[in-house]
Amino acid sequence: MTERALLPIATAAQTWTAVRGLLRPRWPLALLAVAVLTAGTAVGLVTIRLLGHIVDLVAAGRPADAVNGPVVALVLVAVGQAVAAGCGLTLVARLGEGMLADLRERFIDRALGLPLDQIEDAGAGDLTSRVTNDVTVIATAVRSALPELARSMLTIALTAVGLAVLDWRFLIAALLAAPIQIHTVRWYSGRALPLYARQRVSVGALQQQLQETVGGERTIRSLRLQDQHQELVRVRSLDAVDWTMRGIRVLTQFYARLNVAEFVGLSAVLVAGFLLVRSGSATIGTATVAALYFHSLFAPINTALGLVDDAQAAAASLVRLVGVAGLPPASTSDAIGPAAATVAVEQVDHAYRSGRPVLSGVSLDVAAGERVALVGASGAGKTTLAGLVAGIRRPTAGVVRLGGHKIEDLTPAAVRRSVVILTQEVYVFAGPLADDLRLARPDATDDELRTALSRVGAGDWLTALPAGLDTVVGDGGHRLTVTQAQQVALARLVLVDPPIAVLDEATAEAGSAGARQLEAAVEEALTGRTGIVVAHRLTQAVTADRVVVLDAGRVLESGTHADLAARPNGHYATLWQAWSHHRPPA
Amino acid sequence: MPRERRPGRTLLRRAIAGQARRVGISSVLSAAHQGGEALVPILIGVIIDQAVGTGTIGDLVVWIAVLGAAFVVLSASFQFGTRTGEYAVERAAHTLRLELTARILHPRGSAETGRLPGALVNVATGDAQRVGMVNLALPLAVAAFSGVVVGAIALLRMSVPLGLLVLIGAPVLLLAAHWLGKPLQRRSESEQEYAAQAAGVAADLVAGLRVLKGIGAESSAARRYRRISRESLTATQRAATAKSWHDSTLLGLTGVFLAIVALVGGRLAASGQITIGELVAAVGLAQFLLGPLALVAWANGEFAQARASADRIAAVLSTAPRTPGGDENQGPVRGHLRLTGVESAGLRGLTLDVEPGELLGVVLADQVGATTLAELLGRTRDPDRGTVELDGRPLHTLDPVAVRTAVLVAEHDADLFEGTLHDNVSLGRASADAVKTALDEVARTLPDDVDGVIAARGHSLSGGQRQRVALARSLAADPPVLVLHDPTTAVDSVTEQRIAAGIRELRRGRTTVLLTTSPSLLSVADRVVFLADGTVRASGTHADLTRDDDRYRSVVLS
């Protein structure tokens, strides 16, 4: 397997800079949040002091009414603590969610601006997993781990202060637990992280198997592959169970080791109390407070240490998000001068992998308003040439010009004002149909959208849609047929209204009947434009002004359909004969 | 359809019963853990009383040893109880996953076709897991209950009024918190859901990135995402605020409750009815008991979720088969197909004969009718009226698997599966020779080696390559009857021509139906039947029909 060039991953320093950058505009909010939470936690610690005070009052043999005062104070403390916690957590959420929203927006902005070559080199999965998994991991961390961690750490820190205030020797006793805890965390993160990574792989494989099996249900049924697939699911599922259980084993061992720390610390505090009370330097009440303080630390310590892997996972995701979000913004400067309508390809080479050229020395001039059909077998380089003309790929050598300007000298916006490409991929964006179309022209009115759709022959099914333009389409919505989805793509082209249009096998997968319907739509969408069409069906070549035949990355023939079809033993003539063999002369 | 009111109930019971031994062991161990946790504050009180206050070093050592023993018990029982419980969860989920897979892949199919694959996968993962969770929720609920009982006994032994105060107060407190939190929680959940939209839109835009780049819509897409992200931010912040106040209200109520316990306990201690150690223990227990009680509430929530998930699973498992009835086996196959008066989606009274060994082209202008016909021939669907027969036996009397052993229907959008090219074509059945021949005929320009791995669902291949591999697979299987539905829509015309000849050659003497409008394919057929408006309009060779029938010409040629 060749090494993939993954999308950028930020260094620790870059990540810190990015986090500071997100924090900077919000520092008053951050300070306020920390202050309020600290105040609330500090107030909470008074509770145990008051309980100790009650113990002392009782031990001193004071009358029952003496406890009333501390009890009233307890109620006040409870209310104060609750209000502070409510405010503090709200502030933390505002802070964290705001930063998260900024980060994800910047990420999407930069991700959409990445060159296609770079995304493909990294594998489409890289970007997708960043935008889904990594964003989710960080959102979860911000939503649950961050506030919990903040509260737990504060409680631990302030309780330690509280112990020291009682008597510094209590704090020393309590700290006996710390080495065990530190060792446990080290042991755990060394073991758990690789294990969890392996577990995620295994759960991912199960998920993928289920998608393949459930999605391929009809094929499986007709080929009678039920047993094989049932077995595949069983094996993958068992593997996922196995890795999950390994993770759980480590997790339970982690908490068991923390139990040891709890026991050691608690015993030490009790022994310290025993010695201090005997030597007269502490009251029973103080010893009680110290023991209760330590007991009240069990939960926050477990919480804080248990968040170690959440924190590490979030950090791993963060560097992947910042890696993309930290890229410089794509230039948004608008194009100057009129949009170009001519294309010139000069001696262009292209190779996806060095040593395996896909195009070699291809030249092609297209005049304004001309219609050129690219013809050739699969793998001849049609799609690559189309991508080069549209500026979504860069040639390895040679120059592509739009209206005389080198394409690499133009801003992406300028390129796109001149040329639009409809790729092989048919994709309908999830959401109302109108929103999908407005990606092409954000300020289009509903009428303009309808006109665009009916121009490409989609008027009929548009009126049949349950909610017209507002019908939710795409993933999870109303399912459009392949033909309809391609009509949507053509309608987007009509809305962008560029002088040059490149169409790449836009009719390929619609089935024969759909293909003919689409050809009419393509005709309509190309009216008044310079058109470069990757012709899958030769009917598209017949209607073109010029046919360019590609083979193994080179231009083999170029001319009108009539000329080429008549050329004896010509490549195109052979193709045409095969195509028209069973058709009567028109 | 009349059904059991909560079909999920039985399923839930079955999930627990299937793991009864593990759930039992986990319950006992978790109870021991809770008991140990309850003992800790009690022992702190005892040590303050017996050792710190008045005792000797000897007393201290003894009681610390007892504390150590409590920790050993609680720690060990936690470890093994949790592991056993989690294993029961995973096993139950695994069993449900397999049942669901078996149901989804059942040869008789499913009468309900509304479910998207993604939703079904969610049922087999998320819902199965949530149902499995009852096997952990149940032991923990049992354990929490035991913890409450241990605490109650300790408290009541110290003082009946103090014990009753704590035992009644703690649940009242939790109920109050629950009641207060309910509207907040509902709001928070609905807003969380809304917030998830931002993630969905982001993934959708990235998935369609190529399309966006092609039309230069990157910046309008980014603007749209920004708008949705801001809306989602407002919603999450509202949800987070609601949750923060819910949590802090619980915190405040707990504090007030402790104050009341301290008040009553302090007065009892001051009047000498309980010792100082008992006062310490009572305060500690009041705090501790909130834990197990909250655990009960959590378990209750898990059960509610599990019931909803179980209903969804049961709904999938109980869907009616699409092709019920008929379980006879088909003997040796001659390959004679006959449709008589078939009425179904897109077909109106279709009567059609396919002779044994014939290569028949069937042309339907209408995609719906073509799909229906393909489904009828493989018995993934039964006709509304009329019969489909194979060698004189109605398909609806035959077992669907038997039908598909005789008749292989290859849909135009058939899936490939993860594995090598060779495995995809041979399916572990066809001989190496058959695979080689089939690939030679249709797939000469495919990726270099047959041992190369095809990614999940064939997405590493182009549309044309996928189609050719799928076609090679059907040909290599060499079934007595083969139905090919639009096998070459994504293939260039020269290749299509060659494939047509290959099909002709490989299927010589075997019944083959080509459902297509491609002239290259139709020209190699022995006979072509042209269907219009759901019934036979004309029949003859491709050349005849092209010559004689205008409508045929307009459908097939352009």
TrEMBL record, chain A:
Localization per record: Cell membrane
Gene3D superfamilies for the chain: ABC transporter type 1, transmembrane domain (1.20.1560.10), P-loop containing nucleotide triphosphate hydrolases (3.40.50.300)
SMART domains with a match to the protein in the record: AAA (SM00382)
Name of the protein: Multidrug ABC transporter permease
Domain ABC transmembrane type-1, residue spans: 31-313
SUPFAM superfamilies assigned to the protein according to its UniProt record, in alphabetical order: ABC transporter transmembrane region, P-loop containing nucleoside triphosphate hydrolases
Membrane topology of this protein: Multi-pass membrane protein
This protein's GO CC annotations: plasma membrane
Domain annotation ABC transporter: ranges: 343-577
Domain of life: Bacteria
UniProt GO MF annotations: ABC-type oligopeptide transporter activity; ATP binding; ATP hydrolysis activity
UniProt keyword annotations, A-Z: ATP-binding, Cell inner membrane, Cell membrane, Membrane, Nucleotide-binding, Transmembrane, Transmembrane helix, Transport
Transmembrane intervals: 27-51, 71-93, 254-277
UniProt cross-references to PANTHER family, sorted A to Z: ATP-BINDING CASSETTE SUB-FAMILY B MEMBER 10, MITOCHONDRIAL, ATP-DEPENDENT PERMEASE MDL1, MITOCHONDRIAL
From TrEMBL, chain B:
Entry keyword set: ATP-binding, Membrane, Nucleotide-binding, Transmembrane, Transmembrane helix
InterPro entries in alphabetical order: ABC1_TM_dom, ABC1_TM_sf, ABC_transporter-like_ATP-bd, ABC_transporter-like_CS, P-loop_NTPase, Type_1_exporter
Annotated membrane topology: Multi-pass membrane protein
Compartments in which it is found: Cell membrane
One GO CC annotation: plasma membrane
CDD domains attached to this UniProt entry: ABC_6TM_exporters
Domain of life according to the entry: Bacteria
ABC transporter domain mapped to chain residues: 332-558
PANTHER family: ATP-BINDING CASSETTE SUB-FAMILY B MEMBER 10, MITOCHONDRIAL, ATP-DEPENDENT PERMEASE MDL1, MITOCHONDRIAL
Protein name per UniProt: Multidrug ABC transporter ATP-binding protein
Organism, scientific name: Paractinoplanes tereljensis
